[in-house]
Amino acid sequence: MSDSATSGAAPAARPRVLSGIQPTADSYTLGNYLGAVRQWVALQDEFEPFFFIADLHALTVEQDPKVLRERTYVAVAQLLAAGVDPERSAIFVQSHLPEHAELGWIMQTITGFGEARRMTQFKDKSAKGGEGAASVGLFAYPMLMAADILLYRPQYVPVGEDQRQHLELARDLAGRFNSRYKKTFRLPEPYILKETAKIYDLQDPTSKMSKSASSPNGLVSLLDDPKVTAKKIRSAVTDSGSEVRYDPEEKPGVSNLLTIYSALTGESFETLEQKYAGSGYGAFKGDLAEVMVEFVTPFRDRTLALMADKAHLDRVLADGAGKARAVASRTLADAYDRVGLVPAAR
Ligand code: TYM
Question: Is the CB–ligand 1 distance for residue 148 below 6 Å?
Fold first, then answer.
C-alpha cells in the first residue's frame, strides 16, 4: 500500500497527527484518557495518525525490565480498547524505530544547555534527588520528544497541557534546523482541548491528576476495579457551600468533577448545573460515580481480553512499525543529508 502519504515527495493526502504515551504505569489515568487518548480516537477520521508507546522515554527514570515490558503491552491494549483503530492508525513502540533515537541525537546537537535546563519537567523530576542524581537521559528527554514529533512532519500533536513546553521546544528546534540547514521539518502545532487540558487530582484539585500522586485516592486508574473508582469519585474533595457550579477559581473540586462528567456524557456545564440545582454534592457525585463505572467497566473488559492475546498485539505493533518506518526513515535520511553526513555505501 503505497499512497502519497508514505511516498514522501508527493503531498500527504491527509495531514498527519502524532502523539505518544509513556508505559510507566499499570493503567492509564483518567487524565491520560481525557487529556490525550480521547482526542487521538477522534482525530483518526480526518488525519493520518501515528500513535506510539514512548518506551525509550520511560527509561529516563529507573524501570524494572519485566514490569516495563508488561506495561508496554498493557499500554497498547488500552489504546485499542479506547478505540484507536489499527486499520486507520499506525500504532507502534518507539524503540522499534531506531530513527527516533538517531534524530534525537541530531536534536541534542542543536539544543542549548541552558534551553534544556529551563524545561519545567526536568526541574520538577530532578528536584527530588537533586540535579546531580538525575540521568543525562532525563535531561535529553525533550530532544528525543522533538525527534519523535518532527520525524513524521505532523500538523497536530494532541496532548495535555503539561506537554505544551515540550512542544514549544520541538517547534523552536524545527525552525532552527530549517533555517540553519534547509527546510526539512514542519512546525507542529499543539492540539490541546481547553476543557480537558488538565484533569486534577480528586483529593487535591489544585494539582494535576498524575501517576505519581501523593495519595492514590486522588487518582483514577482506568483499569482499577470499577467499585474502587466509584468510591474515589464519591469521596472526592468538594468545596465549601453546596452549589454545583462550574467556577474553577472558587470551586476547583466541583469544577474538576463537572469537567469529567461533561467530557464523559457530552452534557454541557449549564445542563449539569441545572440538573443538580438544589440537590447538593451527594447526588451529583453519586451519579458521576455511575457514569464512571459505565465507562471503565467495558474499557477494562476489552483491555483484559486484548492482554490475553499478546501475539495479536505484536502483529498490530509490527504493522504499525512498518507504516511508521516508511515515513520516519525518509525524514531521517533528509536530516542526515542536510547536516552533511556521508551516506553509507550500499
Ligand atoms: P505521558 O505519558 O505523561 O502522558 C500521556 C498524555 O496524557 C496527558 N495527561 C494529561 N492530560 C490532562 N490532564 C492530566 N491530568 C494529564 N496527565 C497526563 C499528557 O499531557 C500526554 O498528552 N512526554 C510525553 C510522551 C511523549 C510524547 C512524544 C507526546 C513522548 N514523545 C511526542 C507527544 C509527542 C509524556 O510523558 O506523556
Answer: yes
Q: Is 51 helix (H, G, I), strand (E, B) or coil?
A: strand
Asked if residue 239 lies in contact with residue 254, where contact means CB atoms within 8 angstroms, the answer is yes
Sheet holding 16-21, edge to edge: 90-93, 48-53, 16-21, 156-158, 189-191
pLDDT of residue 129: 84
Spatial contact of 86 and 50, defined as CB atoms under 8 Å apart: no
Catalytic residue among 125, 198, 285, 323: 125
CA distance 148 to 177: 15
- Tell me the CA–centroid distance for residue 33 and ligand 1, in Å: 10
Compute the 3-state secondary structure of the chain and give helix, strand, coil in percent, each to the nearest 5: 55, 10, 35
| Cell 516508511 sits on residue | 326
Give residues with Cβ within 8 angstroms of 321, minimum separation 6.
90, 92, 93, 96, 97
Q: What pairing do the DSSP bridges indicate for beta strands 189-191 and 156-158? A: parallel
| Residue 149, pLDDT above cutoff 60 | yes
- Give the atom of ligand 1 at the shortest distance from the alpha carbon of 57: 30
Report the 10 Å Cβ neighbour count for 107. 26
C-alpha distance across the termini of the chain, in Å: 25
Residue 1 has pLDDT above 50, yes or no: no
- pTM for the model stands at 0.95
Catalytic annotation on 231? no
- If you count them, how many residues does the chain have? 346
Q: Any alpha helices (H) in 83-216, and if so which ranges? A: 98-109, 113-117, 120-127, 136-150, 164-180
Q: What atom in ligand 1 is closest to the CA of residue 29?
A: 17
Q: What are phi and psi of 66, to 5 degrees?
A: -65, -45
Q: How far apart are CA 23 and CA 163, in angstroms?
A: 16
Q: Which of 128, 182, 208, 285 is catalytic?
A: 208
Cα–Cα nearest to 234, from 286, 273, 287: 286
- The label of the residue with cell 524545561 reads 119
